[in-house]
Amino acid sequence: MAKGTEGLIRAYDRRVRDVTSVIPSSPGSSTACGKVGDGNLTAFYCPESRSIHISDKTLQAVGSTYGPEGVAVMVAHEYAHARQHAVQGFTRNVIWSSVIDEVQADCVAGVYMKTATPMPISDKMVETAASFLENIGDYLPLEKDWHGTPQMRKTAFLHGYREGALSSCVASDDTNINKVIQKSSDALQNQFDNPQSELNRLLRWGNNVLNN
Fold it and tell me: Which of 33, 133, 164, 171 is the most buried (most CB within 10 A)?
């Protein structure tokens, strides 16, 4: 399934045709971005060599729980990072956190799942793919490598799938870093302004933990 997904994405998106992939990657093998780990979620895009690495253990773990659609969206997410790198670079180099890059990669993965496949995907398969991203979301906004909350990840993926256009995500050819920063700043301000937002709920939760 991983190789099939790769082929479809490459055919659809010229921006990632120069990417090399090592799927599966052997634990401990060296890459330009460090050694491949041995965890159940060892999957990453290495910008230094424009390469994608996913361990066999990860393929087995994701496939056994979420089926081929889980593997497909995982591969699509890493290719989405390759597209980001090609068209605009990474916002984490400007705003410290990885969360915008990660959530937008989920969005692009949704576009890939919708438009790169030659046949319709069932609603159940779409929901399973979304559930995989939802279940690997976390609540660690103070971590540099934060990937987003479960809700953020699922919503971004479904948005990309529903719209089916790269222009609906911050990863199209006409998007520059200033637009990315403006969009992220506006979104963050909206979160602060809304007392019921997920960000403010997280901040209140953290404050309660510190005070108890």
Answer: 133
